Structures are given as C-alpha cells and as structure tokens.
UniProtKB/TrEMBL annotation:
The keyword DNA repair does not apply. It holds the Pfam family adh_short. The chain crosses the membrane at residues 6-27. This is Short chain dehydrogenase/reductase family 16C, member 5a. The lineage of its organism: Eukaryota, Metazoa, Chordata, Craniata, Vertebrata.
Length: 306
C-alpha cells in the first residue's frame, strides 16, 4: 500500500468516471440482449408488475409470474403472450411467507430452470399514521416489502453466483430515501429494501461477481391505484408518474445496467439536498414540497375495493 500512489489513482479514476458519465448524458448507452433470459417478477398480477412483465416479454424472455392474485396473474399471462414472451409460467405465492417463497422457488427451478433476472416488485401500503396502524399490518408491510427480498435472493442468487450472470431488480420507492409523514411503516420497509439491495450489489462486486448486475428503483407516486387519493403539491416538479412510463424506464435501466433509477428526475436533486442541507432547511424543503400532506387524502387500493 502506497498512500501517494493510491490517492493519485483514485483521483485519476474519478476524473475518468466523471467524464464517462458526462459522455453518457449525451450518447445513449448500449442495451444488452435479454432474449431467452428467465425473468421472475413478484406482484405481477397488476400495476407496474404487469406492465414490466409485458415489457420484458417484448424482448423474448421467459416469464415467471408470482402473486397472491390468481385472476390478475392469468390476465398478465395472457397479455405477456401477446407481447411475445417465449414462455410464461405463473405461480400463486405469498411473498410474506418465507417457507412458501422457498417452496415455490424450488418448484420454479424444477419446472422452468434457473432465474437470471429477479424483480422484487410485490408491495403493500398501510396508509395510516403510525399509531393508527395495526401491528399485524405493520408486520405484513415489512414481510412483503423487505423480508421477501431476502428470501427470494437466498433462493435464486446461488445459481446467478455460480454462473456469474444475472440481474437483481428491486422496486423500492422514493419513500425508501426520504421519510414521509403518514408512511412510517412503508418508509421503514422501503429504506430496508434500499439498504439490502445496495449492500448485495456491493457484495457481488467485492466478491468478483461483476456479471451480476443490480438495479434499484425509487419512484415517486405512480398512478396504479396503490396510492389512490394521494396528491402532489407541485406536479411540474414532482408529477404523479404514469405506470406505462415507469415500466418503460425500469426496462431501459435494466437493459443498460443502470444501478440507480429515481423517478421523476427531480428526485435526484431532492435526495441530494436532503443529505447536505442543515436540518431545519431540510424540513422547510419537505414542507414546501408537500411531504407533510402527501398522505392526507389517501384512499389506496384495498379501502377502495371495500
Ligand atoms: N404506485 C406507487 O405510487 C408506487 C410508488 C413507489 C413504489 N411503488 C412500489 O412498486 C411496487 C408495485 O406497486 P404497484 O403500484 O404496481 O401496486 P399494485 O398494488 O398494483 O401491485 C402490487 C402487487 O403485489 C401483489 N402482492 C401484494 N401482496 C403480495 C404478497 N404477499 N405476495 C405476492 N404478491 C403480493 C398484489 O396482489 C399486486 O398484484 C410496490 O413494491 C410498490 O411499493 C409503487
């Protein structure tokens, strides 16, 4: 170890990486070919899970769909066939149940083969202030939004490591980067998902498994029904995203091996500011952006169906 040489190397590499990032701002990155890859998507029975399945299908992949909603999955399966999926398989799987995740994962390995692109997308939201949220729903939120990621990685990562090939996609949330009033359990679960995905990505690099790529997705509200009723204060800066747009951006991020995807673009700036501003200014900014009131008119999916 030589302090002078190492520091010089880091400085030169930093300049190189900055220039590289600058160039790629103007020149589109090359997209990889995912035809024939086995893509497993949790929570594929509706929302962006379904739309991502359609996007992956149009690249000639084999789709494995997981959800607790059988009818939703059947509909997704029909749609992905129309979009050009090489094959589609769907399984009822409650991702909040570790044993069920392991059992269905074994079934997938037997019936389909090794999964090479894993998309952890299934998620729920309680939508209540912390003290009003039932313990059972808080636990369920953590089990689906965070713990399920642990169990699916445990099940499918070994084959990716053996082949030094694969892609781990985590659908987290901007609520996994910034705390939000009325979303304490959801934010905690998404912060957990972010920390987990980021750490595994680094672990793959540190152990020389650089053929396993990771994409961590942190969107603001998407108009799928999950956050029905929620509002944005400044739609120009922080628009509620269209599901089709979000799904296309996620696919593009996977095809170009993009590690972080924040949507809309203003989120990069907001997260950066949060980390450098004095606390009182950060809170003022949060108030200005409407973060204290995002959840005031929350209806959500379940309440609407009742
Ligand atoms: N909609 C948004 O505003 C928004 C914003 C940021 C992040 N996200 C995240 O995106 C992901 C997809 O959300 P969406 O908007 O498409 O919502 P959605 O409700 O349309 O889809 C979620 C899917 O997960 C399934 N699911 C729920 N519990 C499950 C379980 N125990 N096991 C297996 N599947 C289960 C549901 O049946 C549903 O099909 C979620 O992780 C969500 O937290 C959504």
């Amino acid at each position: 170890m030589n302090f002078f040489l190492e520091t010089l190397m880091v400085l030169l590499m930093s300049i190189w990486y900055t220039l590289e990032a600058l160039v790629y701002t103007f020149i589109p990155r090359r997209k990889k070919n995912i035809s024939g890859e086995v893509v497993l998507i949790t929570g594929a029975g509706s929302g962006i899970g379904r739309l991502m399945a359609q996007e992956f299908a149009s690249h000639g992949t084999v789709l494995v769909l997981w959800d607790i909603n059988q009818d939703g999955m059947k509909e997704t399966a029909k749609l992905v066939k129309e979009c050009g999926a090489r094959k589609v398989h769907y399984y009822l799987c409650d991702c909040s149940d570790r044993n069920e995740v392991y059992r269905v994962a074994e079934q997938v390995k037997r019936e389909v083969g090794d999964v090479s692109i894993l998309v952890n997308n299934a998620g729920i939201v309680t939508g209540k202030k912390f003290m009003d949220a039932p313990d059972s729903l808080i636990e369920k939120t953590m089990e689906i939004n965070t713990m399920a990621h642990f169990w699916t990685y445990k099940a499918f990562l070994p084959a990716m490591i053996a082949n030094n090939h694969g892609h781990l996609v985590s659908i987290a949330s901007s609520a996994g980067l910034v705390g939000v009033t009325g979303l304490a359990d959801y934010c905690a679960s998404k912060f957990g998902a972010v920390g987990f995905a980021e750490s595994i990505g680094l672990e793959m690099l540190a152990t020389g498994k650089d053929g396993i790529k990771t994409t961590l997705v942190c969107p603001f509200f998407i108009n799928t029904g999950m956050f029905d009723g929620c509002q944005t204060k400044w739609p120009t800066i922080m628009p509620i995203l269209k599901p089709e747009y979000a799904a296309k951006k996620i696919l593009h991020a996977v095809l170009t091996d993009q590690t972080y995807l924040l949507m809309p673009k203003s989120m990069y700036f907001i997260v950066g500011l949060k980390n450098i501003l004095p606390t009182k200014m950060g809170i003022l900014l949060g108030w200005y952006m409407g973060a204290f009131n995002f959840m005031d008119k929350f209806i959500g999916r379940n309440q609407k169906q009742k």
